[in-house]
Amino acid sequence: MNKKEFVKAFAPATVANVCCGFDVLGFALEQPGDEVWALKTHEPGIVISAIEGITGLSADPEENVIGVVAQKMLTDLQVEHGLELQLHKGMPVGSGLGSSAASSAAAAFAVNEVLGQPFTTAELVTYAMEGERKASGSAHADNVAPSLLGGFVLVRDYEPLDLVPLGVPAALYCTIVYPQIELKTSLARSILKKEIPLKKSIRQWGNLAALMAGLLRADYGLIGRSLHDEIFEPERSVLIPLFKQAKEAALSSGALGCGISGSGPSIFALSASEETAEQVKVAFEKVYAESGIALKTYVSQVPEQGARLVEQSILQTAQA
Ligand code: HSE
Fold this sequence. Notes:
Bound molecules: L-homoserine
Shape: globular
Mean pLDDT: 94
CATH topology of the largest domain: Ribosomal Protein S5, domain 2
Strand content: 25-35%
Number of helices: 10
Distance between the termini: 4 Å
Number of strands: 11
Helix content: 25-40%
Low-confidence stretches: none
CATH class of the largest domain: Alpha Beta
Number of domains: 2
Structural class: alpha+beta
Order of helices and strands: EEEHEHHHEEEHHHHHEEHEE
């Protein structure tokens, strides 16, 4: 087995909830994403020696999600050596694009590689969920699972974790608009009502089940009819400037559906062609043009692959 002493891993941004799948459904984007470098050290413990691409994140391994994830993996394996980690953020925090999840997933992936792959992908998801617990107080998997596995991933249950990777219809494209205000997931979760009326619940699980069928059959009409959220979107969309206008613009430009990406403020729209997805991007930009709000937009397919190795150095080779 090759012993990797240094690795660099990439994990992509993700769209969680996908309208009707609150906390149980998400999909990966091609870009943006985060990179984590992991280097084996002789001294025990974890050191985060650099954070690039963003300011204001703590380099304390007990505070930064990459340190939390890596420490739990080292502790569970009872290894004696330590790790030096570096984080390169490709997206801001509080964007609704699974920023903390991408860092956590990249950390879990990189550390697993440097340790000789002792963990399964499903186990990496549970480690990355510890980063989510640290970041938002809730260990949800709907961002970390697609960030690690790629594609669409359904979380059938949390106890125990039961992940269902789903197919990706070939012509499906996602457009993202990120109005650059910070919206903390913890805040966006704290405003949610704890009880859901039966009538709305019935509609939600009808839509979620139909969305699964639509994805598996590549039935774009069914996907479009299923992308609704009458429970959380009304409560959260008030926190997102021009949400209603952006959604209307996406739908009139031909998007199959549109909703809040994760806990916002990013908004996503799914389309059945790249051309439509580009038109939706233009429509989003028009909506925000005179608002004075800085924007980032992305058009992406849903990649089948999630976290991956970007670079490695193999300093020692031994027989398995
Ligand atoms: N399912 C989570 C939420 C995703 O909506 O709060 C955000 O990370």
